[in-house]
Input
Amino acid sequence: MPIFSRDLVLVMLDAQQIAIRFLETNLQVHPDVVRYILEKDEPDLIERIIAQVPKDTIVVSTRHLPGLNATRDGTRFLCDPSVEVVSGSPGTSGGVNGTADYLFYFRDRFTRLGGMIRTRCSAMPIEALTRNPRYRQEECTIIGMVTEVKTTTNGHRIAELEDTSANISALFRKDRPVFLDAERLVHDEVVGVKGKLSNDGKIFFGDTLYRPDIRIDNTPFKSEKPGKAAFISDVHVGSNTFLPDCWDKFANWLRESDISYILIAGDLVDGIGIYPGQERELSIKNIYEQYDMFGELLSAIPHRIKIIVSPGNHDVVRGAEPQPVIPEEFTKKFPDNCMLVENPALVNLQGVRVLMYHGRSIDDMIGQIPGASYEESGQMMMEMLQRRHLAPVYGRKTPIAAGRSDRLIIDPLPEILHTGHVHIKGLTTYRGVLGINAGTWQSQTAFQKQMNVNPTPAQAVVVDLQTLVPETFTFL
Ligand SMILES: [Fe+2]
Ligand SMILES: [Fe+2]
Output
């Protein structure tokens, strides 16, 4: 008797049993499909999928799910010239405001990310759940912002969740499949949790965790016209570890190439006074001269190529994100094919949307997500996409300027997420979105040597906008 009789499915559905049921019919199953089945909670869904997969199928993927059609997130507008700044134009970063604005900021974060989760489950306010005894021992879903999260002495995960009505502790047992999602909870992210309230009404036992995430049927837009973009970051001009010969090779290579766009995701120069003792590692000790040199490097690039430049934490602008564009007084030597945008910025290249973000938040996520490392910058971009937020953790290493809306929410979805900061190239594809961490143009610094960080310098990731396939070129 297979374990999947209709009656048993309702009470026993978990990830392992779903995988077993597919294996019984000689099929492997993609984790996204398992997650979809868990979320849908439809007793006959597995059998319907099995009945309709083609006979030669080895792995059941999301394209085998019934009723799912490819969808695109939002509308694209082709424009001439082919670069359009969707968000992050000069002057839109806003000021650093008073404490009242933080209330608006967090409300906006909660409402918009909660709204994304609400499209997949119906949730109730936490206050309604705890006040009315009839919900105890009944399966319910809540949506909250994580205000605290820790591991208990028994190895379970416990999170404090807050919505606009109340807060509650949610416990995720280490022996349940949900633990894999729960151990990656970070402060200030917004999640949905399905589970049951304890008899005394004090603790919520979580069984399923929902992140805002990307729809599994998300289909990226591809350009109808030919066009290629090169992605780089962390040039660090002015540092004595900047690699000018490698840059020259890159510029020479560009002259013969069919690249139409270059995107640079911050840390254009090394800056001044960024860390103690930095002056000993600078070959250019004047900030204006650093940007002048950067401008000269850009001028060596063929003028037909559009260059899009955003700042990072080593640049001269404020550290709080969103960071404004590099001010005019520093850009006098920048060529006029160079376009300045903020950090973050969403730019549209022939209909392909690129979200540029320097990536400072990766420092915070590495500190909170088990197994996360600088070597795996691709995974960090996936973590951002699942949370639909570029910097979920508030108040640690990543300063955030609270505006009335949260500019760091990933909405609309881009085709490409372009980051830097960690100086180690990483590529990932998650639910149709290509993540590129673009490495650096400086060799290993003394600090990196001390921290055992091995950078990947002098690389450019080139993406064909008609296929969205990345290719890496090295100029050492
Ligand atoms: Fe950097
Ligand atoms: Fe950086």
Q: What stands out?
A: The CA atoms of residues 102 and 402 lie 5 Å apart. Residues 6-64 form one domain. The radius of gyration is 24 Å. The mean pLDDT is 92.
